[in-house]
Amino acid sequence: MTLTPSKWTHYFGALAGVGAATLAAGAVVIGITAAAASRDRVVLVAALVTTALAGGTAALVFSGKNNWFLHSQYGVPWGEGPVRPLNNPLCWLLIAGLLMAGSALVRRRDDRMRQALIRTPALVCVTAMGVAVTIVLGSFAVAPIRQGHDAYSIGGQGLDAVRGGSCGIADKIVVTPDLAPLRGGDGAEMAGFTEGTGFAPGFTPPEGAPVWGSLTGGQINTGTVTTGWFPLPALAEDQELAVGVAGRSGDGNRVALEFSGPGGTREVILDDTWRDADERETYPTDHVIEDEPQDHPGWRDLHLSPAQIPPGADRVRITALDGTTDPAGWVAVSGPRIRQVIPLPEYMRGKAPTYVDWSMTWNAPCLRDLPKVQDGLVEPPAYLVTPPNSMGFGGTAAFERGIGGAFAGVRDVGVQKEIPTRLNGEEKTPDYSEWGHLFEVEYPYPGNRFDVQRVDEPRWGWRGE
Length: 465
Prior knowledge:
The chain is extended and about 95 Å long. The protein has eight helices and 22 strands. β17 (373-374) and β18 form a beta hairpin. The strands form five sheets. Strands 2, 4, 5, 8, 11, 13 and 14 form a seven-stranded antiparallel β-sheet that branches. Strands 3, 6, 7, 9, 10 and 12 form a six-stranded antiparallel β-sheet that branches. The chain has a four-stranded mixed β-sheet with strand order 16-19-22-20, with no helix packed on it. α2 packs antiparallel against α5 and α3 (41-61) packs parallel to α5. The longest helix has 36 residues, at 112-147. The model has no long low-confidence stretch (mean pLDDT 86). The protein is of the alpha+beta class.
């Protein structure tokens, strides 16, 4: 192992082959030797102790999460907790007892119980390994079923590839750029709300739309707002109606759209508190989990598809209620806007060069118009596809000048603007809603205007150049 590069030891398992062969040979030798001394009490005691240790080790193995890197965990069972009940040592002691009884029934000899006891540690280990492999393979097969056709899973990506091609997670992402804000909404009736302000500083509301907020009166302020009517055109299938919301949309507050048409009026409530980590349909019975009120000062869009809009509706207005007085208990809303819904691969067609972060390359194989890095120069990317913020430094290394990131100029010179996107199926699995980010980069100066001359000069590798 001294001559093995460090990356090979943990990335490519350089020890796996030699280690597995050594363990297998050791198990065979020990088993043969122990079987020959089945009447020795020391051997029997050792078999009991080893059985208990094997069961405890198996329980420890299944106490971890079946959690996989980034998007590979989508839909995978036990991805957020231990594999119950296999994480319980008592379960494995029961399994050990069943294995020993089965082994004793197979061989009808005078010392069959002793022989069965000696074989039990090995049987427990083999069973644990077999179950682990089955769970790993089975969980990736179950993931597409749990996620469904519209949501993403690594198993579903493999099936799509077999059927003739797939763009991976990009197939399940839609881009939602604004088309136009609705005009109107004049004559809003307000109490405790103010127009144009009333939201947390440092956060920019949607561009071109009016805004109403309740934060101007202070954190303990309450109130209501009912905007004027906005004329609502008929939406195409690839469009949606979006409303910007900041602050708390539920948990004592209320945001709704009221539609009007020949068939009367109908109200649709907009609430994204289901995204909160502590929101769940049922709570554990053995302990209390308090529901922490939503604290979300940033602006985000809540949307309705054409199918969610009442048929025949030709007008819409916004109603909002601030009914909470805690520090985060305010709410702000913007006027409605029409957005287009475009699949990510279609939106990126013809847009180049696009930098795809290393963590996303195998999950989005069709995004191939990458920036060129050659002759000591880097082509400035026009678009960035980056992973979720949970990746931390690993998702921004290419832009960090401190570590020599090749694309440091993106932040030093370029101006990034995030393009709104959405992962299909996020309503069912809020934990997966932040798939990553799509940025457009604008540069104030022209690039790629270099006269390149190549000169060959040999360098010895030992010089480290």
